[in-house]
Design brief:
The protein is about 25% helix and about 25% strand. By secondary structure, it is an alpha+beta fold. The strands form 2 sheets. It has a 5-stranded antiparallel β-sheet, with no helix packed on it. A hairpin with a 7-residue loop joins strand 4 and strand 5 (about 145). The radius of gyration is 50 Å and the shape is elongated.
């Protein structure tokens, strides 16, 4: 009888252990199922985020056009050129000739006229070139005159807007102390007129 009671206890202990083992086993199974479910949810989210989406596209035209700087020149007698003649210049006299610069381009530009002449034609070493003075300016206001031996590389004539035409005066003066050596002299050269983007 004692033996059978012990046997029963053992058996009930085993049954309790089995229940606990079964509980742990069920918890593990639930955790496993939850883990798999979480992984599946993440996988579904990834597919949704990176999957194909509806879209529509229209074309946009792009045109790029560069600006232009286009110079037009003229004087009182000639269209398309500047030909300034200073004839019969006497000692102490100033002669002015008007010329025009037009900006036919599409952007503002700075006008300038060069001074690339310094000798008579042909050169005459007997002449004092300080007696010959030139200057360029607008048609209003006094124009400063500079000896041809001290001229800048060019005269800056200011900004000319697109489509605008401006009138300028080129003044020439022979000094009042010029002697007979200046009689019948020819002095000149080709000088550039330039428009440069502002």
């Amino acid at each position: 009888m004692y033996l059978s009671i012990r046997s029963t206890r053992r058996s009930s202990l085993l049954q309790k252990g089995d229940i606990m083992s079964s509980r742990f086993s069920t918890g593990s199974k639930i955790a496993s199922v939850l883990g798999v479910g979480f992984v599946a949810l993440v996988a579904i989210s990834s597919v949704t985020a990176s999957g194909a989406l509806f879209s529509d596209t229209e074309s946009a035209r792009v045109d790029i056009n560069t600006s232009t700087v286009v110079l037009s020149v003229s004087d009182n007698n000639t269209v398309g050129a500047i030909d300034l003649d200073f004839n019969n210049l006497a000692p102490g006299q100033v002669i002015g000739e008007t010329f025009y610069i037009k900006n036919d381009g599409s952007i503002p530009a700075v006008a300038s006229i060069g001074t690339g002449f310094t000798n008579s034609t042909p050169a005459n070493p007997a002449l004092n070139y300080n007696e010959l003075r030139v200057g360029v300016g607008t048609t209003s206001g006094q124009i400063a005159l500079t000896s041809v031996t001290n001229l800048p590389a060019s005269f800056n004539l200011g900004v000319i807007q697109p489509g605008e035409t401006k009138a300028f005066v080129f003044d020439v003066k022979l000094g009042g102390t010029a002697g007979n050596e200046w009689q019948g002299q020819t002095f000149g050269g080709n000088i550039p007129v330039t428009l440069t983007q502002q």
